Structures are given as C-alpha cells and as structure tokens.
Amino acid sequence: MIKTLKHSLCALTVAVCCSPAGAATDADALHESLVVMDTHLDTPALLVQPGFDIMHAHTYDDDFSQVDVPRMDSGGLDGGFWVIYSPQGPVTDAGFKSSRDTALVRAMAIHKMVAANPDTFALATQPEDAKTIAGQGKKIVYISMENAYPLGEDLSLLESFYKMGLRMVGPVHFKNNQFGDSSTDPDGQQWGGLSPLGKELVKKANELGIILDGSHAHDDVLRDMIELSKTPVILSHSGTKAIYDHPRNVDDSLLKKLVESGGVIHVNAYSSYLKELPSDPERGKAYSALFKQMGNMAEMSAHEIAALKAKRKQIDMEHPAVRATFEDYMEHFLHILEVAGPQHTGVGADWDGGGGVETMMDVAALPKITERLLAEGYTEQDLADIWGNNALRLLKQAQDFAASLKK
Fold first, then answer.
1. Which CDD domains match (predicted)?
2. Which residues contact 92 (CB under 8 A, 6 or more apart)?
C-alpha cells in the first residue's frame, strides 16, 4: 500500500465500476496508488508571506500560488523536496550573511509548516520515509537548497542545514557565485566549471549524504559534479536542448553522461525554458517596475502583499502572459525518456518558482502527466520510478556512501 488503503480502494472502485471513460479513470487510479513526488517545490517562498495558508484552497488566478494541501490532494501529490531558495547577491561577507538569514527563515518556515499541521505533513530525511509518510495519508517533506550561496565560504554550515533536514543542494542559481558558474550569468563563465570551493562542496555533500543538484549550473559545472561526486547527481528541474536550445537545458551527450553515472533528470515546466516565446517589452517594463516595489515580502503586511498581487493581476490583464503548452512540456518529457529511460527521469516542474504551462498551472493537474505517459506505453513500474523511486534511489545511494565513510 502506498497512500491510504481507503483512498486507493476508492480510486480503484471508481475505475472499475463507475467510469464510461475507462482509460482516463484507470490512469487516475494508478496515479493515486503511487508515491507521487516533485523534486522542486518553491512553496517555502510563500510560507514566509503573511496571509498565506498552505492548508487553505487557493487558485493561481487569485494569488498566483500553485501548491496547497487541497490542490495536492486533488492532484495526488504526496509531496517532495521543499526548497530553501536565496536570491543571488554580492559575493561578499555581507552578502553571505544576509542570504544565510534568508535561508534560515525559509528553513524554519518549512519546519513550522510541519509542526503546525502534524496530521497533514511529516519531515522526511531517509529514503524509506516517503512510503511510510504517504501510507499514513500525510504529505512528504524533504528539504533541498537551491543556490548554496548562503553558505558563504563556511562549509560547516552545510552540516548545520543537514541537521535541519537538508538532503539536496545545488551550488548555483542565476549568476556565478563562490562555488562555480551558472548557466545563465550574463557576464559568462568565471571559473570554467566548479571553483576550488565548489569542489570542496561536492566532497562535503558526499560526506554528509546529501544529493547534489546540477539544475541552473553551467554544463561545465555539471560535468565536474558528475566526475567528482561519489554518488549520482540529480537535475531537479531541467529540460533538453534537443527540443529547445536554452542554457538551462542539457544536450543529449551530457544527458547520457548523467545517466551513465546513475543520475536522474526531473523535467521542468518553466515556459521560457521549453520554447522560444514572443517578447512583450511593455510587460517586461511593467514587471520590472513591480519588482522594484516588492522588497522583502516576508516583512510586508498581508494588506501590502495583496496590493502588489492586485498590481500583478492588472499587468497580466493589460499584457497577457504567453506560455508554453502541455504538449510543449511533454515534448521535452518524452524526448528525455527516450534518451535517459524511465529509471533516470522524473518530475520537477518548478511550482511556485515560475513553472506551469497552459492547462497545467498548478499541482492539481499532475494526473495529466500519468495519463499521457500511460497512453505512450509506459508501464506502472515506469510510472512508479518516474514519480518517486528514482529520486529516492539517489538519496539512498548518497546516504549509503556517507555511512560507508564511518565504518
């Protein structure tokens, strides 16, 4: 049993007895029976905002959020890796300190979410925790860090975050930092891959049993990570250059190298990484002006945040967003599956971090992926691997290696 027995039996009963559609409902029943995880949930950025309640039903059209408990239930999402994200700042002691504080606040927000709702959420630190937690009808909360920048130059902080539950870390985000090169820094490469400190980060993560995440990293950084890491690397939310040649995506040769090393790629649903989208300079100007007003939203009142969201709605009404489609997303997904195989592919849609495509704008729509993959001929075992087993295998390998060092 994976979720609650009652839930699974209800789904199967509906599939067998009550559906004229047949195939779609069978897909729904299978989806409900699996451990369904996403490896990149940026929702902690909302947890720190006054007025946001993860237990309450929200809509993307109302407040732009994409994850809450009612929608997780609707979409069969058992949980995944909840992200500690810190924006890139200056590579200085002052910048590190400010970012460290941001990271700690977001880590504490994740713990507060779990502590405040013990019947709904449970912290996961071991690979076997996922099945146990889902079987209890609770939501799985692994913790990851996107952008290791807040660690500064003190890698002992990685151990501190490990003790708080951290089990995945990515060295960089949008710009280069003290650990290595980003795939998207407008100034180009600084280090030619991992920096000397970045290589030490790989070693420290291996020693602790933390999965290394190459999403956002420059291809040279990913190559270095694959070569240096004693355990397989994950791309928690990435796409394929074969479909759209964007720096955030990986080409087939590098993808094969990742797979050969045992790694896994989880497919991103960030529209501008899936296809070339038409530019709207006026929309860009309006959003730039809005971002300058935002500041630290964790320090704003609920009223101030509501006012900002109202301005965002106005911008979207005057300058509508152009998004990729679900078919664009599946084109990436199916190509990656063809190259990497179902034992090395997963889902990391970048919810609450910019992800979402037409007809799949929040986690309630996740069963569409299962339905499509079944229609493409992938098996129940394939789906189990894609939705959870692959990421959990990497966590087990990371922890087994760390344990071997203590023998």
1. rDP_like (cd01301)
2. none
pLDDT digits (tens, 9 = 90+) for 203-221: 999 999 999 999 999 999 9
Apex 301 CA angle, 295 and 302, nearest 5? 115
Q: Which helix (H) or strand (E) holds 306?
A: helix 302-318
- Contact (Cβ atoms closer than 8 angstroms) between residue 353 and residue 83: yes
Q: Please, are residues 27 and 370 in contact by the beta-carbon 8 Å criterion?
A: yes
Contacts of 205 (CB under 8 A, 6+ apart): 158, 169, 211, 212, 229, 398
Per residue in 135-193, pLDDT (tens digit) is: 999 999 999 999 999 999 999 999 999 999 999 999 999 999 999 999 999 999 999 99
For the stretch 258-300, pLDDT in tens is: 999 999 999 999 999 999 998 888 877 877 887 777 667 677 7
Tokens of residue 315, six digits: 């911008």
Q: CB within 8 A of 350, min separation 6: which ones? A: 40, 42, 237, 268, 269, 270, 356
**Residue of 132, 148, 175 whose CA lies nearest to 84:** 148
Note whether 264 and 232 are within 8 A (CB).
yes
- β partners of residue 358: 325
Copy the structure tokens of residue 150: 């807040």
User: Cα–Cα distance between 81 and 398 in angstroms, integer?
Assistant: 15
- Helix 281-294 and helix 302-318, axial crossing angle in degrees, nearest 10: 180
Q: Who's near 68: CB < 8 A, 6+ residues apart?
A: 53, 54, 55, 56, 57, 58
| 5-17 vs 23-33: helix crossing angle, rounded to 10 | 170
